[in-house]
Design brief:
Length: 98
């Protein structure tokens, strides 16, 4: 029983290390991009912003983490944006933005 618990804990720790490594690789790729790049959760919360967001939006990347992506949407469109985001998540169809 104790061995199973320990093996389970080790497997869980190994899985978390793999996830962290993948996230780190993903973020490294986005950080090296020549354009502003964001990672946004399903609820619209910014989870990652690369250094180029400063040039485009005027915010430091760390300022955006945890903020709503709607902050970056022009004021006239902000009210519609959550519905558009929800529609994208439901349909999964790519569309032009901006």
């Amino acid at each position: 029983m104790i061995v199973q618990v320990l093996l389970g804990a080790l497997a869980g720790a190994a899985a978390m290390m793999l996830v962290r490594r993948r996230v780190t690789t993903h973020e490294a790729i986005l950080e090296g991009a020549p354009d502003a790049m964001l990672t946004v959760s399903e609820d619209g919360t910014i989870r990652f912003a690369n250094r180029m967001v400063t040039e485009l939006f005027g915010y430091e990347p760390g300022e955006l983490i945890g903020q709503s992506v709607d902050l970056l949407v022009p004021v006239p469109m902000r009210g519609r944006h959550p519905g558009l985001r929800e529609g994208f998540l439901a349909d999964g169809v790519s569309r032009l933005m901006g």
